[in-house]
Design brief:
This protein is mostly helical. The protein contains 6 helices and no strands.
């Protein structure tokens, strides 16, 4: 390797000083590469990798249990909504009670949407944790460290952007549902008030 005057000028050094610095950098890199390929070093990194894998599995298990609880809660809420819809189709239902049921169904549907969003977020967090664990393990060994460049490549960055966009879209749906629920609740209250006034006037 040759340290030219132009290289030294770019680095702001004199040629001899830059050549000496390059020599030290190369010597340190070769020493480190030799040490990282020793059986003791590889054994210690293997134990560390096993610990990281166990930690990732533990966190993944906890997130799976959390998702299972959310799915159970979502099924319960959905069954309540279905029951209320069936009760609403009863011809003997009273108009005020129908309005109350509509508000309650709207609130339950918002809870269902929120539970679904939480499940999706937990799934994405689970994927991120697995990805980070794999990324760290790849960096522990000199034989797999080159894969870092692939992990940080543009296709995976685009995938991360798509996942983030998906979460933002789901959050916007939840916010829109909540805002529309507030508007419907206000309309129902105004409708009930006007109906009461009409009944009082007719009497």
């Amino acid at each position: 390797m040759t340290a030219t005057a132009l290289d030294a000028q770019i680095q702001g050094r004199d040629p001899q000083g830059w050549a000496n610095q390059l020599t030290q950098i190369i010597r340190d890199a070769l020493t480190r590469a030799h040490q990282e390929r020793q059986p003791t070093f590889l054994r210690d990194r293997s134990f560390l990798s096993v610990g990281i894998i166990l930690l990732v599995v533990l966190i993944q298990r906890m997130l799976s249990l959390w998702q299972k609880r959310l799915r159970t809660r979502q099924k319960v809420l959905q069954s309540i909504v279905n029951t209320k819809i069936a009760a609403q189709s009863n011809p003997v239902a009273i108009e005020d009670s129908q309005q109350d049921l509509s508000l309650e169904e709207l609130s339950l549907q918002q809870q269902i949407n929120l539970s679904d969003l939480q499940q999706r977020v937990l799934q994405i967090v689970e994927l991120i944790i697995i990805g980070v664990g794999c990324f760290v393990i790849l960096g522990l060994f000199p034989y797999t460290r080159w894969l870092h460049f692939f992990v940080l490549s543009e296709p995976l960055q685009i995938l991360g952007i798509l996942l983030g966009t998906y979460v933002l879209i789901r959050v916007s749906h939840i916010l829109v549902d909540r805002f529309s629920g507030i508007l419907k609740a206000r309309d129902f209250r105004m409708l009930k008030s006007s109906q009461r006034l009409e009944l009082d006037d007719s009497r």
